[in-house]
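Input/output pair, single chain:
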Amino acid sequence: MTPAPRPSPPSAPKPSAPGPSAHKVTPPRGEPADPTRAALVEILRLLNQAESYHDDREKGLELDEIVTMTQGHWSVDKAGAKIPVIMGLLIRNRMVDHVDGTVRSWTRQRDLGPHYRINGEGKLFLARYLDETQRLSAQGQRL
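Output:
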């Protein structure tokens, strides 16, 4: 009897950019169904994640990347939040910076065009929002 062939070892996972936001298809229980606020928080979360992933020169995301990554999020798919409008709101409220120009992105293997970066105000808003929602959810669990 011949032994069964050994499966090849799995290859190491390749690092990738933050993926689509399929983790939230409906508004979380107990959270108001405000699609604009939900999309705003999701975009800030993605930009914050991208900042920690990419090198200093190429931190941030292009508009097309943000649109792709927010597909699957309830605020975009179900409630119809408009990402370009939300980006304008984030810029006017000084939570996100718009970076013009082209930079070579080695992790993306292409040139990175005009893109958006989260700034200190955006991080502060995101941290406060997450702290508030975690505190509210912890209170709800105690009831």
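Residues 7-23 have pLDDT under 50 and may be disordered. The chain is about 45% helix and 10% strand.
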